[in-house]
Structures are given as C-alpha cells and as structure tokens.
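May I ask for a single protein's sequence together with how it folds?
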Amino acid sequence: MKRWSLLPAVLLLGACGNSESGTSAEALEELSWEEITAEAEGSEVRMYMWGGDEGVNAYMDDVIAPAVEEEYGIDFERIPMDAPEFLSRLMTEREAGSTDGSADILWINGENFRNAKENDLLYGSFADMLPNMEEHVADAPFVENDMGIDVDGMEVPWGNVQYAFQFRGEDNPPETMEELLAWAEENPGAFTYPDVQNDTGNGFVRHVIHYVAGDPETVSEFDEAWIEENGGDVWDVLRTLAPSLWREGETYPNSLEQQDQMFADGEVQATLGFNEYRAQSLIDQGVFPEETETVGLSSGSISSTHYVSMPFNTGNPEAALVVINHLLSPEAQIEKLNPERWGEGHILDPETLSEEQREQVEAYVGEEIVPAEDALPELDARYVDWIQENWEEEVVQP
C-alpha cells in the first residue's frame, strides 16, 4: 500500500470522530451482529483505495466484490484514489457539513490515519463490533498502534508486509544495508529508489534511519534530540549513495509503478517495496523477468501494517462493517495470500484456523522471505514527515 502525508496542523478540527450521516457508532453498538447484517442487505458500499497495483485491483473486483454480493447482497465498488485526494475530499465534505459521504470505507494507515483522526474525518470506534476481529485477528501490537498512533478502534488491520528488494540475475544479491550500499557503488546506475513523497521511497530512507541508529530501540519513538544529533548522518549516507544511482541521483522515479517498469525494462537492476511476496504475480504475468530474486535484508526489514477505516459521513455504516468484517475473514485473508491474486501477508492468528486453512496458508507462503527475527518495527509517522520535509533540500539539491 501507499502512504502520503496531507493536511497541516493549522487545519486541525478536533478529534471526536463521530458519524454524521448513517447510524452512529454509539447506536450501532446497541445492535447485534445479526441485526447489523440484516440492515446491510441490499446496500451499496464504496471504498476509496490506491489503485496502482493490478493484482490488488483484481483481488477486490474478482474476489471480494462477488463474495459480498453473493453472501450479503451488497454492491461493492472500488474507487481508485490516492490518499491525499480522498483526505482532501473528506476535508471539503467536513467543511461543507456533508452528511451523505462519497465513500464508506478507506484504505489508510500511518500519517494519513493520524491526519484523518486529528481532523475528525473518521467514523469513530468500530473495531469491537467486528466478530472476526475477536475470533481471528492476531493479538499483535499493530492492532492498537499504527506507526506510533493510538488506533482507538477507529481502523482495523487488513494486511502485514515486510519491505523487500528485487534483483535481476544477481548470483549473490546484497543481504544487508551495508552490502546494498556497496553493491550500488559497484554497479553505477543499477539502483535507485522513488521520491520520498511516495511511501516506497520514504520507506527506503526509514531503513537508512535504522541503519544509522543501529538499535531499533533508539528510534522506537520520535526523538527530536536524536534527529538533531544524527539526522546529518542519515543525509550523509544518502548523499554518498546518490552519484551511484540511476541518472546519478539527479532525478528519482515518481512512484513504485515507475520504478517497477524501469526494472521490467532493464533500465535498473533492482526494485523494492513493501510486500515481500509481490514479485511472483508480476513474474507470472511476464512483467518481471524469470530471474528476479527477492531479498529481505538480514540487517533488518521494516514490517508495515495497513488498515481499513470508515469516514465520518458514511451513509452505509452497517454495510461498511459487514464488508470490513469479510475482509478480515480467514477465507478472504487466505485468498489474499495467493500470488495469482494479491500475494500479500495476512493478519490472522494461526491458532484460530482449521487444519485445512493452515495448510492453505503454508502452501501460499512457503519459505519465509524475511524471517521474523529480521523484522524491524515501523517508525513513528513523524519520521515520515521529517523525511518528506527535508530530503529534497538535503539530498536532491544539497
């Protein structure tokens, strides 16, 4: 998934997070799940979500939409829209007092969730209403905390992924950040990363922060004193790397889609991004070359969770809850693992699955690309902002 930053602090409107159109969160809490499901039948649900990955789009259109139509009579529509655009639209609707919103579900996380929460753009606390949250979702830190932000039940985890690198035809691809930096220097023009306004590029820089810090605990929370003392070292690493990059670091891909296409065309020899399983479907489609190898850095790979939420003015909260609950179901989560579909990590507690379901998970996942012991915690969302605010001046135009 992509993440973007939007909405300066001067626009903050509060954080009460209540629905202003359909049934309120407080009223829904008084209903049984059977009553919520009955109210949802025959409704339309619109979901704002990034549309830049054909595998993700196909999963939503060919798996989720037919499933909720057949089981609940819900007409599901995926609306491709980047987070800055839909947050801006929600802000406009908030300011206009709109009570019949343009969407019912949001794909969101990190700084976007923080901005939406602080600007009162979300429905309210709903996680406890979902049976699958209690029955199947893993009891993990990401349930309560999203990049240093308390979730407060206003979003629920949808997927968990590791950052990984794809290399073309490398017999011994780099396996640590130190080796990656050396490989880039030895292979001028073979490597780059997207602009840091894009989360893939920002995520690469967050790995450099971990590399400079040495110990994840050092940067477990946003620390201005650490930034003041060590931020220059982060920029030094990136400035030293820049001359070895594609086009000598004078320009950067605008998006992961652009970098993936450059990799597919042989213009660069590496690509990167969140979701360690994403390459297989691209290989199967003939987009990535057969010799593509995915590597998770043994020096540490950031583990990232993405979420779904509901906007403050959804007109169909009951149906939105039913769709979200389905997204968390073992059936939907396991099919999401399928590399022919999305090919993405799940958020399930394996202990709650049947033997057959556990076998399905094992068949899709196979050998771990990024061992759990190599996973790094995601940084506080304020590091994302710091990178976005300073990278251009410090690295691109020093």
